[in-house]
């Protein structure tokens, strides 16, 4: 039985940045290790830019970070500061030209940027800049940011960056090199995560705290929504911005995207997934012989469910970790061709039993249906399907590769119809209230794909400040 990730929500990228004293030369190695820890956020392309004495050197390629870079490549990239990027494309085609970091040149000197998120008004900004004579080499949102900063260069670095940030709409967590400075920025709602870390006299910016652990750094704090951080020989300092910054972290960072050993905005990802499983067990009183989690993010939730319900937890699935994710290429036909066998069922664990199968979400439903079939083929007596997110009924505008609403199985179907489509004996979703309880607070999250209410209302998504 073939199982793919083609109907999962897909995280778009991860970023990592380092500032070290000028006598350091190992920035590329540290950025590489940081990106390894963020590989789950994007497996399509990877790149690293290092800076030394005001100059930049960028290397990037298609594939996993370990496939793009060898030890010899890293040794040639001497520098004391650097940024890196792993990509899953949600804006721009899947090719090397759109791989990041991207470089630019202007009055501020050489610049490089790596960006996680989607600028929903990038197309309008691009058109305005093209009308002003700017030539673009890629389709990436990040190049629009570079052009905007370069255009405001006469106002100085800090003003150029903050004015560019005030003009863009959408989600972003980005790292940038300008001269001997490392800059980080997070969108005014904090939709995409970013953390600040430190090790000795070195400073780091990363999409997740797990990347800081990989280089032996400690987490100092989360970058706050709307914050721009500039790091140089004087250490980090925040650049003031006059932006509304009501937190709305993407809830799927906790449900699915982030690594379980990360903390995002003060919340443990692992603990939140365990709590989601507990809450689902409290809401769904069901009898069964075994609880199984769909690897990887469904496993902590299944553990939480088992502990709360008293039903035994078992390893229903074995995952082949060596085939890679099957959504590396975002073109649907290529996804279908790239489908690999990833999961197999432990028949001795499930045969003759009523099995509760716990997963993080259902998008189109094709993978969930295959999982149920796998369980039945292995001899499960009944398959009860539990989901630790509420139904996904709306598309995402902020950088997650969700299908249009019509392709979402929960958009037009009720619970019984979805259950029948999956071939399950029972189906239960965690309620929105249950999800909020599991996340320790009732607000501060983007729930747009669950409720249709977004941090930026859809009718305002294309608004552009007049100065651009």
Number of helices: 17
- CATH third-tier fold name of the largest domain: Glutamine Phosphoribosylpyrophosphate, subunit 1, domain 1
- Summed over residues and divided by their number, the pLDDT gives a mean of 87
Q: C-alpha Rg, in Å? A: 22 Å
Structural class of the helices, strands and pairings?
alpha+beta
In percent, how helical is the residue content?
A: 25-40%
For CATH, the homologous superfamily of the largest domain is named as Aminohydrolase, N-terminal nucleophile (Ntn) domain
Sheet bearing the most strands, described?
Answer: 7 strands, antiparallel
- CATH architecture level-2 label of the largest domain: 4-Layer Sandwich
> What strand line-up does the widest sheet have?
3-2-4-1-10-9-11
State the CATH class of the largest domain: Alpha Beta
What's the total number of strands?
Answer: 23
Q: Total domains, how many? A: 2
Distance linking N and C termini: 52 Å
